[in-house]
Specification:
This is Bacteriophage Mx8 p63 C-terminal domain-containing protein. InterPro entries: Phage_Mx8_p63_C. It holds the Pfam family P63C. It comes from Achromobacter ruhlandii. This protein folds into two domains: 149 residues, no CATH class; 126 residues, no CATH class. It contains 14 helices and seven strands. The N terminus and C terminus are likely disordered. Strand 2 and strand 3 form a beta hairpin. By secondary structure, the protein is an alpha+beta fold.
């Protein structure tokens, strides 16, 4: 039988028939969509049947060819406990939920902008493009939810959302979202064996960066207000204990193993001083944005605490719940503590 006599059956036959019947406009649209898909980043690791699992929460996640870890949009929405109702789904549903929190005093304008800008990508199996978010958005959303709950801004029907946020943050406290995504996608199989050191090298610069102001004045002013101390302004020397607070609130919570590595690279001299600030060893591409995002979240919690008349102890409790101190390893725990 010649190739021209070969019978086409099944889905292939249906596809050919649809192509024959398609209008020129439809064919043009198909071609345009195909061209757009070719430009999208493709996921190399991850699958819908291998989700990220924390407690009873499941979120589909992927690693893109450029190394970005992403959480599927629908999985993120379901993971934080947002219903599919209300007529809106996806990015709009998440952004509208965050906008409601902002109206109740939770200052998260940047987070809302990120929710409105999902990442479009092609799943590993191909097919239609999917929408997702950089994995680091999830801890930030959880922090905003926990802050809203602790300030009394959530009504009873959203208590379940706060409970799920707490479950997720507990998972992040031990292993970190990057390690979680690498584990469930299988990316750790091709990741360098010195994962922790490689991770730290992305955060810490090999050469000292030029000093720039990375800690907003408001951060220190709010510490004084929460402690009930008179604020003397930035021109006066701060109480020495403020340095201890900064280590606790920032460097011990920014990334696993970060503080001891920074201290190793910047040892104290005989007088107990360092030749440079710890944050000057953070890289501009990874470390600085992480610090900026962390400081933004801390100041947000400070504002919420001050607006609600909370003192220092209540503020620290809020931070402990949403941004717990990091360990010195990225390894996944074998048992839940």
């Amino acid at each position: 039988m010649s190739s021209t006599d070969t019978k086409v059956t099944g889905r292939a036959k249906g596809g050919i028939q649809r192509a024959i019947n398609a209008s020129p406009e439809r064919l043009s649209e198909i071609g345009r969509l195909g061209a757009e898909i070719k430009k999208l980043p493709r996921a190399t690791h991850g699958a819908a049947d291998k989700p990220l699992v924390i407690g009873d929460i499941e979120i589909t996640c992927y690693v893109l060819e450029d190394g970005r870890r992403v959480l599927a949009q629908r999985g993120l929405q379901q993971g934080i406990g947002l219903s599919q109702g209300g007529g809106h789904t996806g990015a709009r549903r998440i952004a509208e939920f965050l906008a409601r929190l902002e109206k109740k005093g939770i200052l998260i304008k940047d987070l809302i902008a990120r929710a409105n800008s999902p990442i479009r990508f092609v799943p590993p199996h191909g097919g239609n493009p999917a929408d997702g978010y950089d994995a680091t958005i999830l801890p930030d959303i959880c922090a905003a939810i926990i802050a809203a709950d602790q300030s009394g801004a959530l009504d009873k029907r959203l208590k379940r959302v706060a409970e799920r946020a707490a479950i997720l943050q507990h998972g992040f406290a031990t292993i970190g979202i990057i390690a979680l995504v690498d584990e469930v996608t299988g990316y750790q199989e091709v990741r360098p064996q010195d994962a922790l050191q490689a991770y730290l090298e992305k955060i810490i610069s090999k050469e000292l960066a030029a000093w720039v102001k990375k800690f907003p004045d408001e951060f220190y002013e709010n510490i004084y207000k929460l402690r009930g101390w008179p604020w003397p302004g930035m021109s006066k020397n701060r109480y020495s204990v403020v340095g201890t607070y900064t280590r606790d609130l920032v460097f011990e919570r920014l990334a696993p193993g970060l503080l001891p590595e920074l201290e190793r690279r910047l040892p104290k001299d005989e007088k107990g001083n360092r030749v440079a600030k710890l944050h000057q060893h953070l890289t501009q591409d990874i470390g600085d944005p992480m610090l900026a995002q962390h400081m933004h979240t801390l100041v947000m919690f400070q504002r919420v605490a001050l607006q609600n008349g909370y003192g220092w102890a209540r503020f620290v409790k809020m931070v402990d719940a949403a941004m717990p101190k990091r360990g010195n390893t990225l390894e996944l725990p074998l048992t839940e503590v």
